[in-house]
Amino acid sequence: MEKQELIEKINEVLAEEFEKEVEEITPDADIKSTLELDSLSLVDMVALIESEFGVKIKGTEVAEVKTFGALYDFVYSRMNA
Amino acid sequence: MSDTPLLKGQELFKLIPQRAPIVMVDAFYEAAEGKAHTGLTIAADNMFCRNGLFTEPGLIEHIAQSAAAFAGYGNYCQGKQPQLGFIGEVKKLRIQRLPEVGSQLHTFLEVKGEAAGVTLVAAETKEGEEVVAACQMKIFIKE
């Protein structure tokens, strides 16, 4: 999957799951505040990324993936590792 | 699917902190690669039974304790004591019917994700081949 295609797919599934407009999801935006994730719902995003893209985000890695841009890079690199 | 429990009855006390009369899992069959299999035979004096049926709170508690036993098994293998767990959220709960006294329930769990100390577990409880309950549950284990 090309990176731009992956970005669009990530935006689409996150917007649908967390009931946001796709336009709100931009590379520099903070994931937690944009998707209104708290300590309980953060795991929903982790599970969604694993089920949709087959990429597991470990506990220590979640803390490092703060923006959507970082998430795109993380998922793309794991899918192409 | 294994038919022989790794742990059963009071041996489960090595995995979960609950004690009678609130113990809602009595067999632990297997755990591997983010999946586990537990069981419960519903006794007539089970505190969640009404009119010969195992009620909805009992099914939810059974699934929660199955998830706790799953987490506890990891600790047990490392020589640690069972830890207190809390249900953070129950999602997508479906209860098809209430099992009768004497039923043997088998619950199959799969970890769907972990973040910030919270584990998302998908669970399916069966009697024979029939699914009687299913849900997703977020569990927080106190360190």
Descriptive overview:
- The complex is a heterodimer of chains A (81) and B (143).
- Chain A is mostly helical.
- Chain A has one domain (3-79): Non-ribosomal Peptide Synthetase Peptidyl Carrier Protein, Chain A (Orthogonal Bundle).
- Helix content of chain A is 59%, strand content 0%.
- In chain A, helix 1 crosses helix 3.
- Chain A starts with a helix and ends with a helix.
- The relative contact order of chain A is 0.19.
- Chain B has 143 residues and is of the alpha+beta class.
- Chain B has a single domain (7-141), classed as Thiol Ester Dehydrase, Chain A.
- Chain B is built from 1 helix and 9 strands.
- Chain B has one helix at 56-77, and strands spanning 7-8, 27-32, 35-41, 49-50, 53-54, 85-95, 104-115, 118-127, 130-141.
- In chain B, strands 1-2-3-7-8-9-6 form a 7-stranded antiparallel β-sheet, with helices on one face. In chain B, strands 4-5 form a two-stranded antiparallel sheet.
- Chain B is globular, with a radius of gyration of 14 Å.
- Classes of the chains: A mainly alpha (81), B alpha+beta (143).
- Chain A binds chain B through residues 39-40, 42-48, 50-51, 57-59, 62, and chain B through 88-89, 112-120, 138.
What's this model, at a glance?
The complex is a heterodimer of chains A (81) and B (143). Chain A is mainly alpha-helical and 81 residues long.
